[in-house]
Amino acid sequence: MTGLAGQLTELAGGAPHAPALSMASAASATVQSIALRPMAPPLIAALAGLAVLVLDLFLPAHRKGLLAAAAGAGLLAALLPLPSLAAQHGATFCLPASAQGHGHGRPPLCGYAADGFTVAVQLLVLGAAFLTVLLSCTAVRTQRLPPGEYWFLLLSATAGAALVPACRDLVSLVIALEVASLPAFALVGLRRGSRRSAEAALKFFLTSVTATAVTLLGAGFLYAATGTLELHGIAHGLAHTDPRLHRLATAALVLTFAGFAVKAAVVPFHFWVPDSYVGAPVPVAGFLSVVGKTAGLSGLILLAVYAFPTRSAVWGPLIAVLAAVTMTAGNTAALRQRARLPYGAVRLLSWSSVGQAGYLLVPLAAAADDAGHATGRALASVGATVAYLLMYAAVNLGAFAVVAHVASRGGGNRLTDYRGLYAEHPAAALALAFFLLCLAGLPPGFIGLFAKLAIFDTAVRHGLGWLAAVMAANVVVALYYYLRWTALLFQPAPLATGRLRTGTAHNGAPHGGTSHAGAGEDDGGAGERPAEAPGVRISRPLAAAIGLSAAAAVALSLDPDLVLTYTTGGLR
Amino acid sequence: MTAPVLPLGSTAPQTLLLCAVALPLLGSLTALLPAPPGLRGRSPGQAVLRHGVLVTGAVLALAVVLALGFDHGHPERMQARTDLPWSSIGISFDFGVDGVSLPLFVLTALLTFLCAVYGYFTLPRGSASAESGGAPESGSAPGPTPRAFVALLLLLESGMLAAFSTLNLLLFFVAFEMVLIPMYFLIAFWGRPEGPARWAAAWKFVLYTQLGSMLLLLGILLLGSKGCGYDVLDLAGSGQAGASGGTGHGAGAAGGGCAARPLGHGVQLLAVLAAGAGLAVKTPMWPLHSWLPDAHTAAPTVGSVLLAGVLLKMGTYGFVRILLPLAPHGMHVVAPYLAALAAVGIVYGSLACLALARRGAAGDLKRLVAYSSVGHMGFVLLGISTLTRTGVNGALFANIAHGLVTGLLFFLVGALKERTGSTDLDTLAGSAGSGAALYGRAPRLGGLLAFGAVASLGLPGLAGFWGEMLALLGAYHPADGLGRPGYLVFMAVGGLGTLLTAGYLLVVVRRVCMGDPAEQHPAAEGESAERKSGSEPESPESTKPPGPAEPAEPAEPAEPAEPAQPRVPAPPFGAAKGALPDVRGFEYAAWTPLVALTLVAGLWPALLLGLSSPAVQQLLPGVSR
């Protein structure tokens, strides 16, 4: 390890060329330069994953908890280079000047670029993965998931997701997408002996692989039309395609979106979402809902803003319509989740994440208006997506943390299981209420409201008034199911009959909450509780996860500019 | 007077205003924490309710000092200004009060304080908590706790105060949204009657008004994105430049960029339609009013007072603060339609109330007051839609008057409910054998109810008169180009509405305070007994309706009482009638300020008109009336 560290410090000292290259640079410039400083975050995450896998071989069974700590430490280490990268952008895997066919004094085409967008998304991915590590500690232990493999898969998927926003050519992009997806398939199906888990993994796998195949087809067509795979090169090539290949190019750019749209849970690629989230362990569902979505959206943003700016007339309306359909489908399906359904909580969060994906696409559709001009302006429009994603990551993972706790109590994780949570765990209930209101976009969830305002503002400014109206209607619809769950938290817990957790005795939705708020408790009902409720304290990592997410959301509510700065050009 | 009553210096008003807005928010957060050792009080519930009273009292004191320090010689000038940039999407900490918002600000602080006092004395007894003598750990007691009540009340107050004092459109929207969740929880968890009805009312309230808020947001975004930002004063300068067609008049310090880019007529019209529809839901304007009666019927007393007294004002305040100055052309186009809908609302509210007040209709008194709010806000909208200074001044006056009077009425109805156990008019009027008969049993309460009703119908000398009169006067002579014949019709319709309002209010006073005369038709009795809207069991006191119709009374109530209403005992003839508890000490404390202010505003209208008139002149610069 020390040797590797030594090599890293030597190479990452800011010098853009590896020592080997400096000898050959005078002779020919056909070898790519590799700088490790820009690549540090995903690289460290990947290496940490490998380290954890190896460490697993040497740890005895009762010390496996150390692996979690190692994974968390690895992610924190991966976060360390980000401030320096934010201050000074970098790029690597750059083509030497002689290898660029059309370099008219342009900056070198690099396969990996660590600019403002990359740094912001990597911060998001690594932070969300850290929260997932906290979330997973309890689940790994109680559900007997193989720890070494679990942490390795999680860190690998993180590394892939951190790699996606930095890729500037199609091959790296698809590779990064697959690195982010393949471990996720395994994570979803990691619960051995669970039929639901295996089914969920298979659904996810088949959908994702098919979509990736479609993406590769589109990439092939793009190569045929433009002759290059670099994103900027494709942009230039699309502006000057052979007229005979014009239609092919248009079809290609639509096809290329498919693989990323699956990860981002965009309609009509969203069908895997509810079943996979329910079948996966709860922390993995949270990870997919945040990090997977981020990977998909970053890919879509890169393609639309960097590769296809000249064809914004094609993808702009397409993404706008997809956004409208996605948010509507997600919200209306979430409305239908009955409170007594098993796994209702995770299912509702999964449909809500589909709805949120719709909101997240709106600024991208608005960026079409700016895309023909300098990339910077389009990135400012897209900044609303990044800001919303940052808020969404903190809040959604916090909600999943509370859900993980309730799920660990056993009993099917129905929405009715949350009834009376305030009486047992007031802090967790208040936190969950805060998170749900942030997702709904209503005070006291201020940051949720501000992030939605940013998206509305972007849409209206770029002439997508109809989309803003659709989003407004969707916000009202979504308020219903978020608020219904929030109200359940504060209703008095049902009188215990021991069988309550099977959900037979009460009609769970708020309309049944009648007599308990009245004087009926005076007969000693206050003393009776469901059997597993008293004394089940929230495990420390889960409590830490809830606390961290709540702290992040509160900090953002007090100073929304921490994320909203991306809406005014912080992504350049 | 040209100098403020209390000279405060230049920075003190800003601090006062910011403190007044922020203090309830802090109080709400601290209410959730357990009480520190020195402040435990008799029980955790009592401690947190006392905390609520203290915080709202402090806010009221700040508001009063702010009002005293206000420069009454220049109410058109925005005073106590703070302008700090906060977020890059255009939200800034922009607060200030002028003659339009100061009365509403003080009214909000006053009503919330009175609600906190009322809640302090009524909550442990009347509501569902197990505080007094119940489980020692109050945080885990089942059912809604006073702690949650106080936290929600203070959060609500912060939102309302922020809405009336902010000059940033997006922050106004945030404040608009901020009041929704606390009110939803107040209705759903503390409302009466318990059961699915209050949940349904709460859902209807929150979803309907959220839809309105979203429409308002679309309008605001349109104004802000096509204009130059979200500052009301900057946009007002450009709006006036557009309306007058010349150089910006009073364009403000932001000057050149804004004044040079007035909003186009199409943009203004679209913004007025969107934002106006959203504000109309809140007002509420017929036909977007259907959330109001259910919400009021189900809400607890405190919730109803704040809903009617303050939340409805936010809608009309939005019209005056945002739409009038920023989109004058759009308002000009929409005004006649607004006036028509307002006139319909006035008559509709009165007719609905008359239907509820009818004997045998089993009308709910709270529902009746709710529909009367629809009528009163119709007058406010009529005044605004005249686009004259007279009309808008009348609208603003009617706003304050409605807040005072309807707040008082809801307090009284709540007290009546607590004493008799019912708000059903037929029960209160004694048509099934027991009734309130307030003049006989609780004369001061009856007197206050009569006072409230008379103030509500607009008797000269009380606050309600001036608002209605000025609104109708404004409709007599609307702004140029609005179509005077139509407005004359609306004015006549409004006058008819006043007549109907007097009708139903006097009927209500007669029925509740004096009781119904002897029944003629036992069959009608049986029907009305079956159609009672659900309530708690009645107090066991029997009534003897006063008046000469007594001897014929007892024979009839005996038969229909048994089958339908086992809990209404048939009163034996001549049975001793218990006295209802009359107005208690804390009720005097809670209601006297409202009574006094209603009298003062009615007898000295210059108090309010002197504040609003110069400010309205600023908002409608091109108008000569």
Written account of the structure:
The complex is a heterodimer of chains A (572) and B (625). Chain A has 572 residues and is mostly helical. Chain A is built from 22 helices and 2 strands. In chain A, helix 3 (36-58) packs antiparallel against helix 4, helix 12 (273-279) crosses helix 15 (344-371) and helix 16 runs antiparallel to helix 21. Chain A is globular, with a radius of gyration of 24 Å. The two termini of chain A are 35 Å apart. Chain B has 625 residues and is mainly α. Helices cover 67% and strands 2% of the residues of chain B. Chain B is built from 24 helices and 2 strands. A two-stranded antiparallel sheet of chain B has the order 1-2. In chain B, strand 1 and strand 2 (92-97) form a beta hairpin. In chain B, helix 15 packs across helix 24 (606-619). The longest helix of chain B has 32 residues, at 389-420. The model of chain B is unreliable at 125-142, 245-257, 523-568 and 570-576 (pLDDT under 50). The interface between A and B is large, with 51 and 49 residues.
Mean pLDDT of chain B: 82
Q: Quick one: overall form of chain A?
A: globular
How many angstroms separate the termini of chain B? 24 Å
Rg of chain A, Å, rounded: 24 Å
Strand order of the largest sheet of chain A: 1-2
Spans of chain B of at least 5 consecutive residues whose pLDDT stays below 50 are 125-142, 245-257, 523-568, 570-576
Tally of individual helices of chain A: 22
Q: Quote the beta fraction of chain B.
A: under 5%
